[in-house]
Structure formats: C-alpha cells, structure tokens
Design goal:
Distance between the termini: 32 Å
Largest sheet: none
Shape: globular
Number of domains: 1
Structural class: mainly alpha
Length: 375
C-alpha cells in the first residue's frame, strides 16, 4: 500500500469527462441517424449518422483505459479490501440509484409513448424479464461493466502487482500492442461465434450480453490502463503523438462505417465490429491522450466543474433525450436544427438538475457514491 498521492493527471480527468459528456450528442444524433433507436426523426441525416458512428467507434474503449489507469492507481494506494469497498461504492451506488430513479421511469415512458418495447401484454415471462434487463440497464451498461471489472480487479490487479519487469516496455510500440489486442479480440470473436452456433439465444439476453460479452470485450482496455500506470514508458507512448495512428484512425473509421452499412447480423457483423473497434480504440487512444496531454494538462475551475458534473449529466441525459425526441423532434423539420436544439435543451435541463441535486445531500451521495460537502 502506498500513501503518497501522485500529481493529479488533469488531462486524463478532462478526457474522461469529455468522453462522458459526448454521450449527449451521441444519443441526440441517434434520433437523426439511420440507426433504429427509441425515437427517430422522419428522415435520417447522413452527416449525423457519420458523426454518431464516429463517437460510438472509439469512445468507450478510451474511457475504459482511463478507468483502468485510475483504478490501479487507487489499488496501490489502499489495502485491497478497502479499495474494493471504495470502488464499489463509487460505481455501484450511482448504478443502483439510477435504476429506480431514471431507467425504471424511462421504461414506462418507452412502453407507453413509443413502440420500442412492443406488445407487452403478449410477452412471455422470459420476454418480459429480458426486455426489463435491456431497458433497466439501458445506458447504465458501462457502470455494470465497471462493477464487474472492479470485482475482477481483485484478481487481475493482484497478479499485475506481483509481476516482475519481464518485459522492457521501452521496447513496446504500437505494432506489438496492436497485435496483442487483436489476438485477444480474435479469441473474443471465436467465443462469440461458438455461442452463436450452439446457444444463439444467449446473445439476445440483455444481462448476458452486457455482463459477460461487453465485460470481456473491454477487459484488455481496462488492463491496458492499469499497465500504463505501472509502466511509465507505456504511458509515454500513449501521450506521444504518432501520425501513423492518427491516419490509421481515419482508415479504420471508414472500415467501421462500411461494416455497419454492408454487413449483417447473421454474418460476421459483430466479429468484424470487434476487430475494427479494437483497432479504432487503439488509434484514438493515441489521438486523445496526445492532444489531451498537450491542450488539457492544467488546472481549470471550469474543467473541474465539468469533471464533477459529467457522471450526473450522463445519467440523466438519456430520458431527457427520449422526451425531446418524442415531443419536440416531430415539430422541427430540419435535422441539423433539431440536433443543435436538442443539445441545448438536453444539456440545459441536465445542468439545471445537476445544480439542484448539489443542494440536496442525499442526492449528492446517491449519484456520486461518496459524501460531498455543499458548496
């Protein structure tokens, strides 16, 4: 256990906050994209579809690298049991709070005002359970994955801590990292394909899809973040701009869009998506870390405000976006105007709710997992 606190990584805080806040334009643009969502506009917008695809192609991979980085940092600061308690509270309490206060009302909103849920009265018992799993977890899926990766961290971090420096990470470059993560992604694809052949209904199960498949997919990114804390040479690689990775992000994103448009779910859509998303995550990891380190690595009260507000904004924005899609979108014929109007309305109401919740101690605790002093 180490009691010394390292210098604050302002650029990582900032990147993590911006990635969380990107959830708002991601879901607002979903309304106007070709993707079928809870609510859709009458006509799809090409540029908003591409914009939506771009956010989705890399955002969570980079987020889980940062989560692994900070999680391992805290693991070394506390005793393991204390670390597990603190992390579970910080992640689990907002998750458990958001289900009855956010996603459960959201489920009834979707059930009664949209056709997303379907004919509930005709559902079998399992179909009702599965629909509830998808809609109660909803946009909270990353919190559930974080809870699972945190629990696994008791094993993976202990293993990592005990590992001697068998690898000279000064000699590790993007080529070796890419091959290593692609090898893992291929194993994930093989595992999914086996399930597809022998138990395909499992892949449609909401809880299994998120708790098992998503957790396994993001595990290497989470561990990559932990490795970058343990080995400064790896972190230095991430923050040093590499033009090949920047150009690679463009090429891989084109491949991502083509896969989304021309592959099918019965074919190799999801396996190809896993391989492409792994590559996109690595390329954008370098882009985000290098530009973030250059532009965001300083203390700013306004940035820290966004850092503190980002989780709450993410939690509440989803039902606000659905409400906007149901009641406002049909009255705005121009998709671009509708998108920016939606951003203003969703962000505005979300930040208003954030300021209200700051003044209620119980809500501050429930949505952060830690006691907070009032302003």
């Amino acid at each position: 256990m180490s009691s010394a606190k390292p210098e604050r990584e302002y650029f990582l805080d900032s990147i993590r906050a911006y990635l969380m806040l990107l959830g708002v334009p991601f879901h607002v643009s979903l309304i106007y994209s070709t993707q079928r969502w809870s609510v859709n506009s009458h006509d799809a917008s090409l540029w908003l579809t591409v914009f939506n695809d771009f956010i989705h192609a890399f955002r969570m991979q980079v987020f889980f690298v940062i989560s692994g980085y900070f999680s391992y940092m805290l693991y070394l600061r506390y005793q393991p049991n204390r670390w597990l308690k603190v992390r579970m509270e910080r992640v689990g309490i907002p998750l458990l709070t958001a289900v009855p206060l956010i996603t459960l009302p959201q489920f009834f909103l979707l059930k009664n005002l949209t056709d997303k849920v379907g004919d509930w009265s005709r559902f079998s018992l399992y179909e009702k359970y599965n629909a509830l799993m998808w809609d109660l977890i909803s946009h909270l899926w990353f919190l559930l994955v974080l809870v699972i990766l945190t629990a696994l961290g008791m094993l993976t971090f202990r293993w990592l801590r005990q590992q001697q420096h068998r690898i000279d990470y000064h000699q590790v470059g993007w080529g070796k990292l890419t091959l290593a993560l692609l090898a893992y992604a291929l194993l994930w694809c093989a595992f999914r394909r086996i399930i597809f052949y022998f138990a395909p209904t499992l892949l449609m199960d909401g809880l299994f899809s998120i708790a098992v498949m998503q957790s396994l997919f993001f595990l290497p990114f989470f561990m990559l973040g932990a490795l970058s804390w343990k080995h400064p040479a790896l972190k230095a690689l991430f923050v040093r701009f590499n033009p090949v990775m920047c150009f690679g992000a463009i090429v891989v994103f084109i491949a991502y869009c083509l896969n989304q448009r021309y592959s099918s779910g019965e074919g190799w859509l999801y396996e190809m998506d896993a391989l492409i998303s792994t590559l996109m995550g690595l390329c954008m990891l370098n882009v985000c870390f290098s530009f973030g380190h250059k532009l965001l690595n300083s203390h700013s009260p306004r940035i820290m405000y966004l850092v503190n507000a980002s989780l709450f904004i993410y939690l509440v924005h989803h039902p606000l976006t659905i409400l906007y899609g149901i009641f406002v979108t049909p009255h705005i014929s121009n998709n671009t105007l509708g998108f920016f109007t939606g951003l203003v309305m969703v962000f505005g109401i979300a930040f208003l709710l954030y300021e209200i919740h700051l003044r209620i101690p119980l809500l501050r605790f429930l949505f952060s997992g830690k006691p907070q002093q009032p302003k």
